[in-house]
Design a protein that fits this description.
Layout: E1 2-4, E2 14-15, E3 18-19, E4 45-47, H1 50-60, E5 66-69, H2 79-83, H3 85-95, E6 99-104, H4 113-122, E7 125-130, H5 136-142, H6 149-162, E8 166-169, H7 181-193, E9 198-200, E10 205-207, H8 212-223, E11 227-231, E12 234-238, H9 240-248, E13 253-255, H10 259-272, E14 276-278, H11 280-287
Parallel strand pairs: 1-4, 2-5, 5-6, 6-7, 7-8, 8-9, 9-14
Antiparallel strand pairs: 3-4, 10-13, 11-12
Helix pairs in contact: 1-3, 3-4, 7-10
Length: 300
């Protein structure tokens, strides 16, 4: 890791305390060259003055809102356990009576459940948790540096018990790997049991561009070796990497051949369990800030 003093932190009401990640997820779009990293992705850039910048920014804001983090880098990477920058930022958000929401795959968020509960009592706190597969063994292959799905389910349950609303990012779903009805059913079942408010799903597939494509293909070679497949002329040996190259070439969007059927199935399961499903509609719900003023005493 290396430390920097950032010039600003909110853009306009979201922040990223860390630049880079240690989770090692094989599909991570943040590795893409378009984000212009000047250091190795695993050499985390730590914005050490993030709490001070956030304090200054919230003092100047005329209207309170939800403050989000995690869109480009998980705020609960292992370094956070020692550095506590995210916790300090939550303390500032709490003190200034703003709302808070974060996207994470880590159970370290449970450390800050007390602060999230305090924020939620006054305004609003939403925990967003990424789940991609209901299979822990597969999870360890595609997301090797973070707690498995079963543990993330426990995090969602703990939030439910604390009265903190949750959203699950069901993305990405990797063609030929976890784009199955069984996986969708397993994830939605976990969400229903944990009282998840909404699921964000951008479709059944993933995006690949320069930077993350190469990392993804290297991981496929390592974790999904070649296997025999039956074709019209007999059988052949095909690796998962070759399947992707044959199906998608250098496409940015790599959609499952079963996308329409699986999205219909996902929607039907969400209706059955009364779970909100969408993208823009869910983001709108997350960003909605309560009208109540925690500083204004009730008249009656």
């Amino acid at each position: 890791m290396h430390f920097v003093n950032a010039k600003s932190i909110l853009t306009p009401h979201s922040m990223n305390i860390y630049r880079g990640c240690q989770h090692g997820c094989i599909y991570c779009d943040s590795r893409s060259k378009c984000y212009q990293f000047t250091h190795d992705f695993e050499d985390i850039e730590v914005k050490q003055n993030a709490p001070q910048l956030l304090e200054e920014a919230l003092r100047k804001k005329r209207k309170r809102c939800m403050i989000g983090t995690g869109s480009m880098g998980d705020p609960y990477i292992p370094l956070e356990k020692e550095l506590c920058l995210m916790r300090r930022c939550l303390e500032i958000i709490d003190r200034h009576n703003f709302g808070a929401t974060m996207i994470t795959k880590s159970d370290l968020v449970l450390r800050d459940l007390d602060l999230l509960d305090r924020i939620n009592q006054k305004t609003k706190a939403v925990v967003q948790m990424t789940l991609t597969t209901a299979d822990d063994e597969l999870c360890r292959k595609i997301e090797p540096g973070v707690c498995p799905t079963s543990r993330r389910f426990e995090v969602l349950k703990a939030c439910q018990q604390a009265g903190i609303p949750t959203v699950v990012w069901f993305s990405p779903l990797l063609p030929f790997i976890n784009d199955t009805k069984e996986n969708i059913e397993g994830i939605v079942e976990l969400c229903a049991r944990a009282g998840v408010h909404a699921i964000i799903c951008f479709g059944i597939g993933l995006t690949l561009r320069e930077g993350n494509r190469e990392y993804f293909y290297t991981a496929l070679d390592k974790n999904f070796p070649a296997r025999n497949e039956v074709v019209s002329t007999g059988s052949t040996t095909v690796s998962m990497k070759e399947r992707y190259q044959q199906a998608f070439g250098y496409n940015y969007m790599c959609s499952s051949p079963h996308e329409r059927e699986l999205m219909t199935y996902l929607a039907s399961l969400c209706r059955k369990h009364n779970i909100m499903l969408g993208t823009d509609s869910v983001f709108k719900w997350i960003e909605e800030f309560p009208d109540t003023d925690p500083l204004q005493p009730e008249l009656f």
